[in-house]
Amino acid sequence: MQVRSILRILGLLVAVFSVALLPPVVLAWIYGDGGAAAFFLAFLLSLFIGFILWFPNRDRRADLKTREGFIIVVMFWVVLGTVGAIPFWMPDNFSLSFTDSMFESFSALTTTGATVLTGIDELPHAYRFYRQLLQWLGGMGIIVLAVAILPLLGIGGMQLYRAETPGPMKDNKMTPRIADTAKHLWYIYFGITLACTLAYWAAGMDLFNAVGHAFSTVAIGGFSTHDASIGYYDSWIINLICVIFLLIAGANFALHFAAFRGKSLRNYLHDPELRALLAIQLVLILICVATLLVYRWYDGVGQAVTHGMFQAVSIAITAGFTTEDYSAWPVFLPVMLIFASFIGGSAGSTGGGLKVIRVLLLYRQGVRELNRLVHPKGVFSVKYGQRALPDRVIQAVWGFFAAYALVFVFIMLGFIATGLDDYSAFGATVATLNNLGPGLGSVAANFQDVSSAGKWLAILSMLFGRLEVFTLLVLFTPTFWRG
Amino acid sequence: MQVRSILRILGLLVAVFSVALLPPVVLAWIYGDGGAAAFFLAFLLSLFIGFILWFPNRDRRADLKTREGFIIVVMFWVVLGTVGAIPFWMPDNFSLSFTDSMFESFSALTTTGATVLTGIDELPHAYRFYRQLLQWLGGMGIIVLAVAILPLLGIGGMQLYRAETPGPMKDNKMTPRIADTAKHLWYIYFGITLACTLAYWAAGMDLFNAVGHAFSTVAIGGFSTHDASIGYYDSWIINLICVIFLLIAGANFALHFAAFRGKSLRNYLHDPELRALLAIQLVLILICVATLLVYRWYDGVGQAVTHGMFQAVSIAITAGFTTEDYSAWPVFLPVMLIFASFIGGSAGSTGGGLKVIRVLLLYRQGVRELNRLVHPKGVFSVKYGQRALPDRVIQAVWGFFAAYALVFVFIMLGFIATGLDDYSAFGATVATLNNLGPGLGSVAANFQDVSSAGKWLAILSMLFGRLEVFTLLVLFTPTFWRG
Ligand SMILES: [K+]
Ligand SMILES: [K+]
């Protein structure tokens, strides 16, 4: 294990990250409502931490092996989550306990969007902005890791996106060098965020809120600068903008990358995962709107359409924004949407959950078995696009699913042990492991009333979700540390 | 499709089944508390139904193909479930609505053990006995189907038990002729039931109740002749007898078969599934007892041990007997046991759930993926016993798991649509799909308050569980009916 090379990389990351603590300082100065000291001290502290990690190891530029790749990916989230918590924890006119600071920071960075705060509208602008910024940076991290790094580690079928897959990857082979890929992903991510900001701004948000909400929309994070979330604006046009950008951010960024490099939109049309994602969202929207209309839940068709569409996409794609308390919706709508969050966004998007492509492959494996039962001698393959997938990839997806289910059960039992009732424990597990944000029962709105142990378990669960379970799980195996 | 050959077989089945309606007539005569007319009329009616199905087709002895095998297996449960409902429905001094009769009959026959009845202690002896008998017959049907027929149909990895598996099958190849296999399974089933009856009798039950409870114990059915279930006896020795026979009935009957033929107990020791089953039960017992002791839930260690042991095994192995209201137990015990019922008994046992062997294979596939992540070039196989399993079998297990999960979600949403709250809907789905019996929330004790639509959905769910999901699901595919 090349510990010093890993420390060097983490040091650089923390140093770069510390720059993100400066815009809140500027905002605190502009608005004069506090937080300047906290953020400036946090900036100095994290710059210092980055320096002492990097400086002694600055010459350690070794080639890293797969094993070190896992450590770096896990440490990426753990170290940045911890450093990101500093401003919340710094004593100022606003500050949180250590546990709450960590919870808020990890929830933001993993784009989960669960919170321990209320009265967000009254917080200093520096903090309101910083929470959104953390989500945006987290989203950027997810994209780079998921598109450029996790496939190299072979996590849960993601290698599908390396070379085996047809469509975008085959026609426009992704630039092999990670740095170059990351740079282009950054342009795309920035471009989509800019477009989203302008759209929100044009639709009536002020610039501060437009930027803030664009950050958490593109990151599928779900944090808002208002307690009432997107519902604060009570505007169907803002709802629609949010839904459109959630769908864009819920697509695989490798697709955006291919479109960007190839200057063609054809790839989008032929991607099976994107088509499945859009089909799922459409069906959920139709079910929600139809049910709300049948139950006459809102006065007029317009309300049912705008809220039905918004909440269906926001929950199913694991954003967690709200315009309405969907958990009070009639019959099976709340549970259906919560279940849909297990599907989540595409692989290589900022969404959470199992990811559409995996669910698609699981489904097709089920269909294959049915066909095999009827025709025991027949040869059936699981297809993705035009191509039969190698069994190796499908096995990886199944292994992923088994691990996800197992981790889910243990975390849910853990939440019950920390004092949550069964229903809330289920909600808390879905909210954190799927990186969704809002839960059910006592954690439907926030995690304020959860015990400290429960909050730490939530942090672990968010990490499991964001690290595609396996990346974290592998560190607990003896094989990993042997030899 | 050889419809007339199928009708001939079903006719024979119904005719044979009708004999089961005579013992209750005798009991009604002995105890003189009613039901004689209902059961005798039901006997005549089902004998007649059997005859008109069989007689016109009595010469149709064709070789049946796989496809007809599926139809027969599904119809086995549907037809016997329906015929079995007749006595409940017959107007007498006790009778149920059509829906309730069907519910009670299917719940009994599929060894689910959910009920719409209360005041069971006051029912005529004929009915009290008949419910137990239906479970016992259902258990027998499960064993024959699971050990001798489903493997031929290739359902969800059960082909593992045909020829591919080491251990009992290899050393003592199962008699290829189904009829012969069935005969020997019957001896074994009868022998275990007899032993269980004598044990209960010796422990203090009267003969009527000893037979009745032996029926539902060996069938892992969970029905009792008392509202208070096994708790009625308040006897640690009866609890222990029940647990021991549940574990015997929760083992694969192919193991008992091999031991019976080979006169050796060695097979038991080397069977990976049985070892896993016992290990799981032991861990659950320890967790339950320890938690009950820590929380000082009962006065004295004895109570905690007997109830902890009893409820852990009864719920986890999907029997559903109760001595205590375990759903009120502290922290995560209720949810843990409910989750454990997803594992259930062994394949080829009378237990429900996913079955131990499948969960074992899913777990090992998860471990294989972890190993592959650390050593991407390594070759890892999923082992069962000493032998690496062919990928084909593992894929079948995964397909099964995907179908199970999908069916679970749809049935749970269906229960919500029929008016159950989210928590009870989850409980009702677990109770029926896992063939467990008792649920949570409003269906914790019985299904009396469920709407008619909900009861029919419960029947469908029990069938899905008992038919290993795929057997029923395959009938809904276009491929099945084509050509
Ligand atoms: K989220
Ligand atoms: K049962």
Q: Sheet bearing the most strands of chain A, described?
A: 2 strands, antiparallel
The radius of gyration over CA of chain A amounts to 22 Å
Any idea what the shape of chain A is?
A: globular
Mean pLDDT of chain A: 87
- Sheet with most strands: strand arrangement of chain A: 1-2
Number of helices of chain A: 21
Percent of residues of chain A in helical segments?
55-70%
- Quote the distance from N terminus to C terminus of chain A: 9 Å
Account of the protein in words:
Chains A, B: It is found in: Cell inner membrane. Chains A, B: GO terms for molecular function: metal ion binding; potassium:chloride symporter activity. 2 copies of one chain form a homodimer. By secondary structure, the first copy, chain A, is mostly helical. Chain A has 21 helices and 2 strands. Chain A has helices at residues 3-18, 22-31, 36-54, 66-89, 98-109, 125-153, 168-171, 178-202, 207-218, 236-249, 253-262, 266-270, 272-294, 301-316, 333-340, 356-374, 391-417, 422-433, 452-466, 470-473, 478-481, and strands at residues 383-384, 387-388. A two-stranded antiparallel ribbon of chain A has the order 1-2. In chain A, α5 packs across α6 and α8 packs across α9 (207-218). Chain A starts with a helix and ends with a helix. Mean pLDDT of chain A is 87; it is low at 162-175. Chains A and B meet through α4, α15, α16, α17 and α18 of A and α4, α15, α16, α17 and α18 of B. The structure holds potassium ion (2 copies). One potassium ion binds at residues 111-113, 220-222, 318-320, 435-437 of chain A.
